[in-house]
Amino acid sequence: MKKNIVLLPGDGIGEEVTASAQRVLDAVAHQFNHTFTYQTEAIGGAAIDEFGTPLPEATEKACHASDAVLLGAVGGPKWDENPSHLRPEKGLLGIRKSLGLFANLRPVQGFAELLHASPLKHEVVNDSDLLIVRELTGGLYFGTPSERRDDGASVVDTLAYERSEIERIVRKGFEAASVRRKHLTSVDKANVLESSKVWREVVNEIAPEYPDVTVEHMLVDAAAMKLITAPTDFDVIVTENMFGDILSDEASVLTGSLGMLPSASLREDGFGLYEPVHGSAPDIAGQGLANPFATILSAAMMLRYSFAMQKEAETIEKAVDSVLKQGYHTGDLNVKNGQKVGTKEITDYVIEMI
Amino acid sequence: MKKNIVLLPGDGIGEEVTASAQRVLDAVAHQFNHTFTYQTEAIGGAAIDEFGTPLPEATEKACHASDAVLLGAVGGPKWDENPSHLRPEKGLLGIRKSLGLFANLRPVQGFAELLHASPLKHEVVNDSDLLIVRELTGGLYFGTPSERRDDGASVVDTLAYERSEIERIVRKGFEAASVRRKHLTSVDKANVLESSKVWREVVNEIAPEYPDVTVEHMLVDAAAMKLITAPTDFDVIVTENMFGDILSDEASVLTGSLGMLPSASLREDGFGLYEPVHGSAPDIAGQGLANPFATILSAAMMLRYSFAMQKEAETIEKAVDSVLKQGYHTGDLNVKNGQKVGTKEITDYVIEMI
Ligand SMILES: CC(C)[C@H](C(=O)O)[C@@H](O)C(=O)O
Ligand SMILES: CC(C)[C@H](C(=O)O)[C@@H](O)C(=O)O
């Protein structure tokens, strides 16, 4: 197959980790007889510096014309004091909205070699394997009005959803659960928010279409507790944008391997943007020290979700797993009796295993 | 001093735990020569059953006329399917708003005897001692519009704040930090929400009034991570209503002693409502098994914050501590080599120590 991939390195370590993932993708293409072509575009702080905007039109266009997008990371102290339309994150929010990427999938799974670095006790976190399905283009993030009023004496943001937006993300949650352990936890704040009441109704309406999936409703505050006390109780969590932002970051530190976590942001037709969960790590940028695993695993998600290349995706995942099993790791990871190597070297090892 | 306290037992174990706290308060009154009078009123599910509303007018009136309010817990499966104006939580939200209790204080502190029950590793959670100051009468909880539109095709909730509402809660945060370890973490989502940008501005404006307090801004997703990876880094956290709801519940399970956590909801003049953080535990209600410690410690907060009775508050706190040190505990707590006793008995032990 021929696929055209847009690379958005962004800021900090973004360039290094997307370069690594590209090398891995090329190795897979070679192995499986695919042709991947790449186009690199600017986003985030880098785009602000070069083009005066975090999301240049050329970037948007290229993404729309592509088969999938791989993003590194955006942000850094350099742009922290910028006015809000000139902040790197606006590029990320803008491209999600522009591409209609309403479904954010964040799998959280422990790696045996890293679990000892978890802040949780082994018996609490062991065997946890959950997937957060977060709504990504609605809610408080995009609702209007979002403005100051009365000369700055008051301010409002708006949590708005179309019922159809809730329906499509809830379906994604059910679909994900039905190919996993068939347990869906829908998280809301139905005892306070009208939008959560609608959310709960929609979940209950759609549930009969997935009779093999067990559904549970949980309040967001209870979910924030249970992720810590009993993470293994979760299979798939589906929730709205802001709750998903908070809970997925909370979940990302449970297994001691934030540097390993990939994510996918999908449209209905399977098109998607893929990015590591971690940030731009400006402190180690450009030094060849960055951990590329999360971006490489994001590329694997791209193969699976956007290109329907199951075997190819698994090949990458197994390669990463076996490099880690051999004890190779970057400086951010804590592997007992492991060997610390740099970005390029660890990528070489992954490619060797493909 | 003479003080008039309204007791709102509410649902489930609420009656048992408030009865325990009342006995402890009486012991303190006797010891320190105060007179506490009590008036018991209905709230939550119990009020729905008896009066057809979760917050009867008589309850509101009595609270307004009192010197402080002690609440047990509200809610239970019995009322879970009720329409939203007939849900127990509405009573709680209503009384907070009616009394103007904008500042919710939730201290989270480990007890040496219980820390081993924490889901976190000892070295991560040991010595953690933090206070969450949550805005309680604004934001998404009370903003309007909060309604369905277009015949149910869409729904909105509103996150609204007056700048003055932000100012007064931020001041509470600074004040709390200045009598503790002088570190304030202000949590927002300033990279997305306009209200968070105002929040951050207000914090920066007020900071110079508290030169001995170090201020740090943290995004809510980052805070959700750091509470788990480095809880000891926090002293005081100040945040808006919904973020505070999520983060304070997340924080409540860190030390393995949810059943020990008190809370205070305060007005500017020191008037307040006090309640345990835990819920109504309908499964063990009425059996004499409930853990009254969190409610007893909430009563201690009442003495400290509403009645300025520091010594009296400390007497209660020390009594609880020493009962726990002697190994006595209720069934919800996990104390090594401890002795499990019931609500009445453990309350007797606390009173003995006063
Ligand atoms: C950078 C920020 C706007 C973004 C979000 O809140 O969605 C990030 O936290 C994420 O989760 O991808
Ligand atoms: C019962 C519910 C409405 C309430 C809240 O969300 O404020 C509770 O979770 C709390 O934190 O006291």
TrEMBL record, chains A, B:
Organism: Salisediminibacterium halotolerans
Compartment(s) of residence: Cytoplasm
Transmembrane domains' residue ranges: none
UniProt-annotated binding residues for Mg(2+): 221, 245, 249
Pathway of action: Amino-acid biosynthesis; L-leucine biosynthesis; L-leucine from 3-methyl-2-oxobutanoate: step 3/4
Annotated InterPro entries: IsoCit/isopropylmalate_DH_CS (IPR019818), IsoPropMal-DH-like_dom (IPR024084), Isopropylmalate_DH (IPR004429)
Protein name (record): 3-isopropylmalate dehydrogenase
Keyword vocabulary terms for this entry: Amino-acid biosynthesis, Branched-chain amino acid biosynthesis, Cytoplasm, Leucine biosynthesis, Magnesium, Manganese, Metal-binding, NAD, Oxidoreductase
Cofactor(s) listed in the protein's UniProt record: Mn(2+); Mg(2+)
Catalytic activity: (2R,3S)-3-isopropylmalate + NAD(+) = 4-methyl-2-oxopentanoate + CO2 + NADH
Coiled coil: none
Subunit structure comment from the entry: Homodimer.
HAMAP family with a match to the protein in the record: LeuB_type1 (MF_01033)
Recorded GO MF terms: 3-isopropylmalate dehydrogenase activity; magnesium ion binding; NAD binding
GO terms under biological process: L-leucine biosynthetic process
The enzyme's E.C. designation: 1.1.1.85
Note describing how the cofactor binds: Binds 1 Mg(2+) or Mn(2+) ion per subunit.
Predominant subcellular localization, coarse grouping: cytoplasm
Span of domain Isopropylmalate dehydrogenase-like: 4-350
A cellular-component GO term for this protein: cytosol
Binding residues for substrate: 96, 106, 134, 221
Function: Catalyzes the oxidation of 3-carboxy-2-hydroxy-4-methylpentanoate (3-isopropylmalate) to 3-carboxy-4-methyl-2-oxopentanoate. The product decarboxylates to 4-methyl-2 oxopentanoate.
Positions with a binding annotation for NAD(+): 76-89, 279-291
NCBIfam families noted in UniProt: leuB
Family: Belongs to the isocitrate and isopropylmalate dehydrogenases family. LeuB type 1 subfamily.
Sites marked Important for catalysis: 141, 189
Upper lineage: Bacteria, Bacillati, Bacillota, Bacilli, Bacillales
Pfam entry (one): Iso_dh
